[in-house]
Amino acid sequence: MANNKLYKGSLSTIILRLLEENERMYGYEICQKVKELTDGELIVTEGALYPALHKLEGDGFLRVEYQEVDGRTRKYYLLTESGLKETAHKMDELQAFVQQMQQLLDLKPGIG
């Protein structure tokens, strides 16, 4: 996908928003959900996902729960209280950015 670089800078925001909507998710599930929501246009690799998850956890925005599933331990990620606040902040930031980009790109010929 040509605009993967645009998404890379937004990966933390994507993760936070998905966890806000789904309460708790494990890594593979996050990758699959992104793929599903973008009709396969955006593929989040484990190499990109797990460092982002670990950073968010280290920053105190995520906590981890372990659950036994089919004889294997699955690691689930959940938002903390500060993670919920960070999600709201990131969504406000993103909305403002999109509005600014629309203003810049909706210029009519001959203006300015």
Automatic annotation (TrEMBL):
A matching Pfam family: PadR
Stored InterPro entries: Metal_resp_DNA-bind_regulator, Tscrpt_reg_PadR_N, WH-like_DNA-bd_sf, WH_DNA-bd_sf
Transcription regulator PadR N-terminal domain ranges (all copies): 15-87
Name the record gives this protein: PadR family transcriptional regulator
Species of provenance: Flavilitoribacter nigricans (strain ATCC 23147 / DSM 23189 / NBRC 102662 / NCIMB 1420 / SS-2) (Lewinella nigricans)
